[in-house]
Amino acid sequence: MKKLYTALAVGCISLSANNLMAAEYDDCLAKAMNDSEIAMCNNSETARIMRRIQSRYKALSSNKYFTSWNDKTLSAAQNFQSLFNQWVEYRDRYCSLLGYTFDQGKGTVGMVQTSQCLLDVTNRFASDVEAVISVYNKMAVN
Prior knowledge:
The protein is an all-alpha fold. The chain has helices spanning 2-31, 35-61, 80-103, 109-141.
């Protein structure tokens, strides 16, 4: 029960911090005067979300519940660090391709689209990580 209350408290604090950061991102976009500044806002927000994902991954990888899955002596694909690194590599290549598709690297629209893709895909991954944590919290309570 104590674990559940701790998880809820951390969740509430995280939501408050995320709302504050979302407001900073919105403010950055509102002040952006050109494509480079929009891309900078997107990249800053992506970096913030990545820090949150890395923190969550660190917590998961050090949790005894995941010891067998996170065994680094098993397949390289079956541990948190490998999964994270492969996901980042996929995200970066995919978003680079998508951005290139907009202007073949000859303008600024591709840069904006690449940065938006990085942000969108990172947000989806953050949701996926939270889904793992949610399932863990349900399983650990039982």
